[in-house]
Each structure stands twice: as C-alpha cells, then as structure tokens.
C-alpha cells in the first residue's frame, strides 16, 4: 500500500528540489511562488522556515534566496553539490598527513562563511563540516583578500558583526603582501580562537549592544593578526593557521584552504608551509578549471 503523503511537506520538498537543481542561482519570492504554483504567503512561510534552519540563505538587497550551509551537513549528496568537495578533501589529506595536522576548506555561502571539508586526525579536529560564521568585519578578511579590490571594499562596507578599528594603510600592506605570497599567516590569540568558536552559528548583530562592545574590545583592528614576514633571522612566531585561496574559471576567489599550525615556528618554516599550501590550492584551482586572476 502506498504511504500517505503530506501536501504541506510536499511543498517544502518542491522548494528544496527546485533550489538544489539550480544550486548556483538565487530566486525572489514571486519567482519561486510562480514557478512552483504556490501562493506567495505559503511560499514565504516555507522560505522563512528554511532560512531559520540554515537550509536556505536570504540575500537582503534585492531579497533573494539560495542554498544554505545546513544542506552540507545533511548528507554526501548535498556536499557533492559543491562540485569539487571530494577533490579538495583528497588533496588536503596529503597535506594534512605531511604535517600531521588539520586542514580545512571553506567558502562564503550567502552571508555566512561555511566549512566544506575538514581533514586530519579525529582527536585533533576543532571544527566540523557545516559550521558557519558571519561574513562581516572583523570576520572574513581572507575570503576577499585575493579577490578584486571592489570585493574587498564591498566586504568592508558590510555592517560589522562586531565593532572594528580600521587602519587602511596597514590593511593595504596586508593585502599587498598576501597577494604577492599567495598565502596568509594568521596569529590568532587564545581569546581570538575562543571568539571564533563562540560565534559559530551565531548572528553577532543579534547580541545585546553591551555584549557586542565587550567582544569588540578583544578583537584587533583588521589585519593586525597577519604575519607580514619582516622579522629577524630565526625569530619564532606563534602561528594559528596559514590560508591560501582557490579560484574559479573567471579568476574570482572561490574557496579558502587552511593548514592549522597552532605552535611557534620560525620564518623559514612559515615560508615552507605557506608554499606547500599554496601549491595544493593552485592544484585544486587547475583541476577545477579555474585560473589565477590577472592583477
């Protein structure tokens, strides 16, 4: 005997099916309601619930909807919708084994930074696939750093997730050096790492103003925690992660690959690890049909 169906559930499934089949596109409420033959009030209710659950993301201007980060953790099929997920994992596994550490791949999805892959020893992992963070200053510099100057400016104009201090001259030095090197070296403090963990899955701008101000006091100015490579011979540096970008077919920044360090290393070792990560990122870019941008 055929199982009973639920028309309201069928409409939710229809919305998800429609969006998954067009994963790289965004749709407005009227467009979706018309395509799926659902009334606008009903469609809006479905979309709002899916956004709340992280299955869809809502872009504010103009208001459109697209796939959300919760779909990544929902299963392998959703993960593979990000086309090169398995390819990235295989490349990161070699790098992770070489340095006995955790490596990740992440990307901006809607208005959140989402972890797409985490490889390394299970007992050493501090993050999991599907975790997301607000893509707004001070979080997210490495996701625009190697993109166009317009993309950097667009990110800077977003409503800050936390209060920030902006030193444009220093930020320009950071951008210039990281673009020349092809990687970024971040020296997060213990407080900074705890802040990132606390913000996972949280919309910081929904916190009370007093809490946001207190959190803002422990956040350095933009780019302040980036190692710029100007130090004495043999000087040691506490490094949190090294990050490098991949690019799409248009030469736009796509994902960020990271190599966790979490200890003191000298400048020569920073350069070696940075070069190794950059080589993996370049290989992923090539295999995915991408290309480095022409500056």
Say how many strands there are: 8
Shape: globular
Identify the quaternary structure here. Answer: single chain
Backbone CA Rg: 20 Å
Number of helices in the DSSP assignment: 11
User: H/E element string?
Assistant: HHHEEHHHEEEHHEHHEEH
* Major beta sheet summary: 6 strands, antiparallel
Structural class: alpha+beta
- State mean pLDDT (0 to 100 scale): 82
Q: Please estimate the helix content.
A: 40-55%
Strand arrangement in the largest pleated sheet:
5-4-3-8-7-6
**In percent, how much strand structure appears in the residues?**
15-25%
Distance between the termini: 63 Å
Contiguous uncertain segments of 5+ residues? 76-81, 200-205
What do you see in this structure?
This protein has helices at residues 7-21, 29-36, 40-52, 70-73, 76-80, 85-99, 149-156, 168-181, 190-199, 209-217, 267-287; strands spanning 56-59, 64-67, 103-109, 112-119, 132-134, 184-186, 236-247, 253-266. The strands form two sheets. A six-stranded antiparallel beta sheet has the order 5-4-3-8-7-6. Strands 1-2 form a two-stranded antiparallel sheet. The chain is globular. The chain is built from eleven helices and eight strands. 41% of the residues lie in helices and 19% in strands.
